[in-house]
Amino acid sequence: MKLTILGGGGFRVPLVYGALLTDRGEGRVTEVVLHDLDDSRLYAVARVLAEQAATVPDAPTATATTDLDEALRGADFVFSAIRVGGLEGRANDERVALAQGVLGQETVGAGGIAYGLRTVPVAVDIAQRVARLAPDAWVINFTNPAGLVTEAMSRHLGDRVIGICDSPVGLGRRIAKVLGANPREAFIDYVGLNHLGWVRGLRVAGRDELPRLLADPDLLGSFEEGKLFGTDWLQSLGAIPNEYLHYYYFNRETVRAYSEVERTRGAFLRDQQAQFYDEMKRPDTSALTAWDRTRAEREATYMSENRETAGAGERDADDLSGGYEKVALALMRAIARDERTTLILNVRNQGALSVLDADAVIEVPCLVDANGAHPVAVAPLPDHATGLVCAVKGVEREVLAAAENGSRTTAVKAFALHPLVDSVNVARRLVEGYTEVHPGLAYLK
Ligand code: G6P
Ligand code: MN
């Protein structure tokens, strides 16, 4: 089975390859093709993969190419994990927004819109090529903003593109753990958009255990989301929000914290990763050791400003292992081998969340089998959550429209309608600022 990874020179590719190495079963991936625009990044990642495979018999072969069509031909699965504009682009997304006093984050608020505007046209081109060159392939989209990008691709690939994120799984795992439940046996009642969802229940053998957690301030304050949001607020909500909702519920504090840091997350990662890729040019260093050190530092500092404003302290050791590669592997196995399972994924709504239309991509538990991912019916969201989900989906639709019609006016509308952008004038200045720094937005006229 052939797996093609787009963005194959990306830093997190060894996580995926490491997960593949643990899969010994029949029908596993035997061939990995890395595609990237940048040769030196491919070379660096290939070095890490070679060291990972060194002690594993029958490791999947790994080859690299800068030819997209060649990479796609014959693929059974395509992982799309690209970063249009690189980490320099991410740092600029943050900087331009913060200069206007609004949130500049990779996926949320103005930063997420800017990132979406330059990523959607590239993702659409990829989707069209897959439809032509590998029509039977399944595309698993990791590229952020994951919900929006998956929806853009689904217009060309239908349900053969599935978006993934590890944050709902991590959240479900943490809740199960504090409740003393086995995460494998628990059904997580979670729904929303990517990075904008809520856990409303956790059922073990049909019994909802979440009320027990919400009623116990000690338990509630003992894990990441309890520390971030505070127990009082979680009890008021009667649900556990995805960590990215911290940017909404505590917007003023997170914007201030982001403005005060010496280097934003994007700028930090830009510098950190540049150092890693530089180090990979020296043949005498161990690629795997350098990669692992860099990864550990990245994970330990994830959302550190948010945790600081909330006084949440360090991350829990159990939360440092990431996990998106595990979701991707579980999804691929379920489809390729008809191993039925339930996973929280980004798919077309198809009526699961009645407030949105059938084609809107949402994040929802899905039953997965050889026919793909099928969203399960979920209870409606409360009004305040419905309001946010509809507002943000409305923004995503304006981003998709702007990418399609190339209109600056539509781009301004996308920014202006976002709940975290507080004036149409700010939206206008954001479009000016972003088009100045991002060559990838030159299509906006
Ligand atoms: C979480 C999010 C991902 C994001 C990742 C890395 O897992 O769900 O969407 O890509 O964190 O964030 P970082 O700030 O390290 O790039
Ligand atoms: Mn994510």
Strand order of the largest sheet: 3-2-1-4-5-6
**What would you say the CATH architecture of one domain is?**
3-Layer(aba) Sandwich
Major β-sheet, in short? 6 strands, parallel
Radius of gyration: 21 Å
Low-pLDDT runs of 5+ residues are: none
Shape: globular
Describe this protein's structure.
Strands 3-2-1-4-5-6 form a six-stranded parallel β-sheet, sandwiched between helices. Among the domains are: 2-163, Rossmann fold (3-Layer(aba) Sandwich), CATH 3.40.50.720; 251-319, no CATH class. Strand 7 and strand 8 (196-204) form a beta hairpin. It has helices at residues 13-21, 39-53, 68-72, 86-99, 109-133, 146-157, 167-178, 210-214, 217-220, 224-229, 231-237, 246-249, 251-260, 265-279, 287-300, 304-309, 324-337, 383-405, 408-416, 424-437, and strands spanning 2-6, 31-35, 61-65, 77-80, 138-141, 161-163, 186-193, 196-204, 207-208, 240-241, 341-348, 361-369, 372-375. It is α/β, with parallel strands linked by helices and 445 residues long. The chain starts with a strand and ends in an 8-residue tail after the last helix. Residues 146, 165, 167, 195 line the site of manganese (II) ion.
